[in-house]
C-alpha cells in the first residue's frame, strides 16, 4: 500500500516477504538504469538484516536479469575480522546472496 506524505510516497507492506520482493524489484530496476546510463552499478552493503531482505535478487526473475559483472560492491561497516568469520558482513553477504550470483 502506498500513501502520500507531503511530497513523498511511503510504501507499507504487510509482511517482510513483501518488503523483500519490492526491494529486489527496486534494486534490479536501479541496477538496470545505472548500467545503461553509466556502464556500472555501485552498491554499498551493511550488515544486519539487509542481506536477508535482499534474498530475492538471487532468484528468478532478478538473478537472470541483473547484469552482475557490472556491479561493484562496497561494505559500509565491515568488522576487522577474517572474511570467513561469523561476525563478518562479507560472509553474511556471501552466504545470503553473492554465492548464488557469482557465476554471472
TrEMBL record:
Alphabetized SUPFAM superfamilies for the sequence: NagB/RpiA/CoA transferase-like
InterPro entries tied to this protein: 6PGL (IPR039104), Glc/Gal-6P_isomerase (IPR006148), NagB/RpiA_transferase-like (IPR037171)
GO BP terms, alphabetized: carbohydrate metabolic process; pentose-phosphate shunt
Pathway: Carbohydrate degradation; pentose phosphate pathway
Domain of life: Eukaryota
Domain spans labelled Glucosamine/galactosamine-6-phosphate isomerase: 15-101
Gene3D superfamilies (UniProt xref): 3.40.50.1360
UniProt-listed PANTHER family: 6-PHOSPHOGLUCONOLACTONASE, 6-PHOSPHOGLUCONOLACTONASE-RELATED
Annotated protein name in UniProt: DH200=94 genomic scaffold, scaffold_1353
Species per Swiss-Prot/TrEMBL record: Coffea canephora
Lineage: Eukaryota, Viridiplantae, Streptophyta, Embryophyta, Tracheophyta
